[in-house]
Amino acid sequence: MRILLWHGYLLAGTGSNVYTRALAREWSNAGHDVVVVSQEREPEQYDLGRAQTVAVDLPGGLLPVFVMDRYTGLKPKFLQDFSDAEKRAYVEANAAALRELLPADIVFTNHVLMGGPVGKATGVPFRVKAHGSELEYSIRGRPELAAWGREALAAADATYVGSHHIREVLEDVVGHVERVYEVPPGVDVDEFTLQDHDDALADLIEEARNDPPNEGNERLPDNGNAERFADFLAGDQPTVVYFGKLIEQKGVQILLEAMRDVDARLVVVGFGPYRATLEAMAGETMAPPRTLFTGALEHRHLVHLLPLADATVVPSIFPEAFGMVAAEAAAAGSPPLVARHSGLAEVAAGLEEEYPERFRHLASFETGDAADLARKLKELLALSPADRDELRRAGRKAVVDRWSWASVAQRLLAPIAVK
Alpha helices of 174-313 — where are they, by DSSP H? Predict the structure, then answer.
């Protein structure tokens, strides 16, 4: 099949970016003719399989965003602050890029807004993936945006949601939508694997040595990470990892508070406007040698960092469409400990189905409760080597059986009965 995959952003750094990249790789490697239409100007950095790429020139360089961030060469502006004229110009520029690439068997767009209107404006059948961020950050509480999204989705062949939670959020925020299908995001189980500690550390250091100079780009790893990893991760002290966006909604501050009472070192991976605040907080609450901020890391780093983690914490205090980071950690043998809400609770439930009964309470903690998180972390880190190995293998089995990218990519291409 010929597939046009539209994504309005870059191809790294956040969940929907990684999602798009993974679909491009899976579909193209399966033999499909895939074209990714996005804002990525350096696609050669990423494994997209055999997919081609096209970057759209935006009118005035204006990029509609849900969370404020920096984009080189673009002017990010909250979606809800776009004027009607700016919305029309953005939709038409992207739809025109897609129309030039027609015909296609499938047009697949990301985000209710702007993916829905862009898909509709192509004039051909299209499918939409709702990611949750647009629903919670921009559309909720704004009736005019909800109506626009509902109108666009009514024209779609299918709207995909990553979890039952997001199905409910979509209904609550946008209103009733027909032809909604639940397909969770996926994990590359051939990339995220169980790895020996010494090999993982050596590989992580080697990957960090290959990093380009940061030069002030927050989307790149910090300078000097190879040496910092070698020093910080030496020895057998318990290690806790967080990776994700550094914004207040992700709840990293809850993790820092919990770590006051946990005898372990902490690695914080990610970028975002909350980083300086978190670093100051870590300096106040934890001895400096016990916490390391790395900046942004790619999958090529994480596949080696996660096997070194005795636990990976997902402390988000805001609803999440799905707990992809938790699933990736489990696939790599780092038991995830997630805040029990929204899509994260669904990942926790999947893990619990595979965990031995005596460990099932260690998949999640009460949202926003640093004391409960600290208790669960202490128990998790105190497991015997045999118990830890049993938990690691059970977690990986849960991911392989439920959330591999190969099965997800196939489900998204399944025929849709359009009425």
Answer: 197-209, 225-232, 252-258, 275-285, 299-305
